[in-house]
């Protein structure tokens, strides 16, 4: 047995896809996969880090409401008129001033991806972003600058004021 392990130590184990019928077969070799140089294949339905295609987001807040651990923070700014369309044709009426996901709190349940009407929040195959700073795991997907946010808020306030004034006439 010692000699078997001695010779086996010259080989490392193979990276086998979990969907392979040989997945549970005993492999020769004693060392594990040499991560990060080698990586195990991951299943297509695996739940890993989230990504948001912000251009396709209608800022409906459904993902944040569905999240059991409140790790999605969204701040929306209303627009007086439609601001564009997503790739599936949904009309966008809100700007995303903030769209943050705290991956340090996320429990990878995938609920946010299920409720999204435009399927713009998805789980990627990214699982190895380690860091020593927890705050690095707050991913910001919003793309608006502070100036643009202030401008859009001012536009909405002006629109509301004009509506109120028109009602009083
Ligand atoms: S995967 Fe679950 S815990 Fe993570 S952000 Fe989405 S809903 Fe929240
Ligand atoms: S559910 Fe989808 S469309 Fe709605 S805010 Fe979340 S990511 Fe955007």
Write up this protein.
The protein is α+β, with helices and mostly antiparallel strands and 169 residues long. The chain folds into two domains: 1-41, no CATH class; 50-146, Alpha-Beta Plaits (2-Layer Sandwich). Helices cover 24% and strands 17% of the residues. The chain is built from four helices and seven strands. It has helices spanning 2-8, 62-66, 111-115, 146-168, and strands spanning 50-52, 72-78, 84-85, 91-92, 94-102, 121-123, 138-140. The strands form three sheets. The protein has a three-stranded antiparallel sheet with strand order 2-5-7. Strands 1-6 form a two-stranded antiparallel sheet. Strands 3-4 form a two-stranded antiparallel sheet. It is elongated, with a radius of gyration of 24 Å. The N and C termini lie far apart (95 Å). The structure holds iron/sulfur cluster (SF4) (2 copies).
